């Protein structure tokens, strides 16, 4: 996984919500939307290389897509995978400041 392109394929986007912001402030955890095929080792390597931080642990879970209805037609959103990354003490990732 030395190619930077594959690193960006593993991490799709950070999840920025009220709940994930509280996790970041209280437990030093970051939450990312990741590729469905990515495993914990690939996620850890991608976060460490892209953000220059030390990762302590990675937890993953699959989020089931919601069933949505428009008129008589019913469909379902795609399932996706979420990764909760716990950083080492003193390490931070800041998505809010311009660089």
Description:
This protein is α+β, with helices and mostly antiparallel strands. It has helices spanning 4-10, 18-27, 40-51, and strands at residues 11-14, 29-34, 55-63, 67-70, 73-76, 80-87. The protein has a single domain, classed as Alpha-Beta Plaits (2-Layer Sandwich). A 4-stranded antiparallel beta sheet has the order 1-2-6-3. The chain has a two-stranded antiparallel sheet with strand order 4-5. A hairpin with a 2-residue loop joins strand 4 (67-70) and strand 5. It is globular and about 50 Å long. It starts with a helix and ends in a 12-residue tail after the last strand. The model has no long low-confidence stretch (mean pLDDT 91).
Terminal CA distance reads: 26 Å
Order of helices and strands: HEHEHEEEE
Number of domains: 1
CATH architecture: 2-Layer Sandwich
Radius of gyration equals 15 Å
Provide the CATH superfamily: RRM (RNA recognition motif) domain
Structural class: alpha+beta
Low-pLDDT residue intervals, each spanning 5 or more residues: none
CATH topology: Alpha-Beta Plaits
Q: Main β-sheet, in a few words?
A: 4 strands, antiparallel
The fraction of residues in strands falls at: 35-45%
- What is the CATH top level name? Alpha Beta
């Amino acid at each position: 996984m030395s190619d930077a392109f594959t690193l960006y394929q593993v991490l799709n986007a950070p999840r920025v919500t009220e709940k994930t912001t509280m996790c970041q402030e209280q437990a030093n955890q970051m939450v990312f939307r990741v590729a469905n095929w990515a495993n914990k080792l690939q996620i850890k390597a991608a976060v460490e290389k892209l953000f220059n931080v030390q990762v302590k642990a990675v937890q993953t879970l699959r989020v089931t897509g919601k069933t949505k209805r428009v008129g008589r037609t019913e469909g379902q959103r795609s399932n996706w995978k979420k990764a909760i990354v716990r950083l080492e003490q003193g390490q931070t990732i800041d998505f809010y400041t311009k660089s």
